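Supplementary Text 2. Reproducibility record for the structural model of the 300-residue chain.

All settings were left at their defaults, and a single model was retained for analysis rather than an ensemble. We include the record here because the model underlies the residue-level annotations in Supplementary Table 4.
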Amino acid sequence: MVRNPWNFTAAPFEATLTPVAFCCGQPQDEVLARLEWLFEERQRFALVIGAAGVGKSHLATMAVRRLGALGAEAVLVSLRGVPPGEWLELLLERLPLDHASRVEPTTAWQKLENRLRENRLLERPTVVVVDDLDQAPADAVAGLSRLIGSAEPRFAWTLVVGTATGATVGNLPDSLRNQAAMRIPLEPWSEADVGRFLTEAITRAGGDPTIFSPAAVATLTRFAEGLPRLVSRLAHLALAAAAGDGLAGVDASTVERVWRELAPADPVAVAAASPTFHQGSASGISRPRVRAVRRLFQDG
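Retained model, structure tokens:
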């Protein structure tokens, strides 16, 4: 297990999508506020676009909770890796249909229409958050386009929110992208956001939020380029490296050492490892030591 000289009651940097692990930095707060506005204005479709590792999936889970609290029947479905022909059944599994509706001898599309009609009659909006929309099979894109673009009343209170990366949003047809009422960018965290995340995570685990020095926070933000997934990973490993070295806290050199050991193997880190990213950094940095990384873990 990871050395724990700080007596954490739980792992502070768990790679989970649980609500308790969500840190609402300024970029997340902005996206959620825009989604709430679109919901209140009865818009039909929005795209949330951000880089890989920026936290789109975690944001999607929180969007479901946030819009559900506003009275919507909100569901989340991820379409990455879903085979053609299965997306609609997957969506129906997420909707709270009663047994009679599920076994009714009608098509899957008709079951979806019936549910949307029922919600409309109850004046209950429906929100479908589609994570990895840019990785969806063609039949799912076609079905969602129909759902979004239809003028039929039963679809009028349905908001579809799709997430996509900037590099692959072009996979979606123009006919779908052009229907978006808003394309919302999810930006990386600032240094202040990273500091808030570290403080919340460590405090939640029963630790001292000053374990990471201000210089360590700045270094972690710089190397991770503010990407939450990479921030969490580097923070976890920097803690382990500091513990292996017997340090009282995490300093900037520990963060940099861990980064230089792990960056080549991390696809999310490729951009931050580019030569242009490091322009202006201090020159003459010594070759990273591996002693602490070799001592990250111990038995018992």
